[in-house]
Structure formats: C-alpha cells, structure tokens
Amino acid sequence: MTGTAGRGGGEAQGVRWRRGEQVLWRYRDHAPGGLPGAVHICRPVTVVEDSDELLAVWMAPGTECVKPVLADGTPVHEEPLATRYTAPRTTVRSRWFGTGVLKLARPADPWSVWLFWEPGWRFKSWYVNLEEPRSRWSGGVDSVDHFLDISVYPDRTWTWRDEDEFAQAQRSGLMGPEQARRVQEAGRAALEDVKAWGSPFSDGWEDWRPDPAWTVPVLPGDWDRTPAHMSS
C-alpha cells in the first residue's frame, strides 16, 4: 500500500493516489489532554478519487480491519458510559461484515462524510463524522475522531448522533472546553452544507458503484506504523 510521489519530497509531501490503489484510513486514540495517541482504528480502503478538492475511498464488505475493544475483549459500546473512555483497552482484528462504506473527505474539513447502503444497494443515509482534518502519509490518512456525529437522510432530514459520548469524553478529560467548542462549530458548519444541500450531498454519490474488478484490500502487518513524515 504505497502512494505515488508527486511534487516535493518526503513520505507524505505531494502524495497522490490513483483510482484503484489501496491505502489505509486510520484513527488515533485520544491521549490525556486531547492529544493524539496510538492508532486504534485501521481500515484498508480502495481509492475512488484523489484530487485537490476531494479524497473518496471505498471500504468493501469483508475487509479485515482493526478496532478497539476493552482489555478483556468486550466490545467498547457495552462498557457503561461513565467508564467507557477510562477502562483499559486493546485492539483486535475484525472483519467488516456490513455493506460497504464510501468515505468522502475534503482536505481542510474537520469532518468526513460516509455513505451507507442497505443490502441490494438501497441507499440508507449519509453520516457526517466529525474529526481532525486528515493527515496524509504515503500509506494513507490519519485522523482523530471527535465523538460527535450527524446522520443525514435521503429526505434531507438530519439528527445529531452520539451526543452522550461527546459529553462523556469531556468529563473524562479527553477533550477540553475550547476543543469541544471547535467541534460543535464544525458540526454547525457541516449542517450548513446539509441545509443548503451542497456538496457532497447533491453530487449523486449515492448512485456510485465500485469497480467489480477491485479486490478487497489486505490489512498489512505494519498497520500501526508511525510515518516518518505527514502532511495535511
């Protein structure tokens, strides 16, 4: 999983990926004080489009990913909210058995937009995942999730998601008041796109389909490696 070096030098600078290339879409955990920690989510994906305006990737059904679990293997969502972000964790490899997910990200946006389908390609919804603008390296992109999310439906209605986890993350010291304010502002900015029915909601991505010749990417052994250089 390597990118094509473009202008400049270094591992990340000028990297552009061709359609069909396979890269990693990763999230780093929250360290105390809101700083990024180790990689705890890693999803191999196939590049659909990579331009100055948009990175679009496809996560195929059956993809082997990495996800966080509690130290005893219990799924994170089963831990009571009060201790969900303080209980010891580890990571495990796990297959993505749902329908595939198309992820869209504009370079500077502190969010990405995911498209979900029901079986049979019946479009379900968009999901606005509030996150750090992605840092690009030769093998993919890294971000930090901001807990708060928005679901957007085909009838153009929307709803906030995970507000309880967003509040608990602040109580647990993973996000300070200033960062929380910025995340809320980012959510409101994303909603302006929704209310105006701007890009990417009006771009017809719900009718997109993956190339049948694409193979499911393989999770590499060094999925958690630290890149030498990164760029936004």
UniProtKB/TrEMBL annotation:
Residues 78-198 form the DUF402 domain. InterPro entries: DUF402, FomD-like_sf, Ntdp-like. This is DUF402 domain-containing protein. SUPFAM superfamilies: FomD-like (SSF159234). Keywords: Hydrolase. PANTHER family: PTHR39159, UPF0374 PROTEIN YGAC. It comes from Streptomyces toxytricini (Actinomyces toxytricini). Pfam families: DUF402.
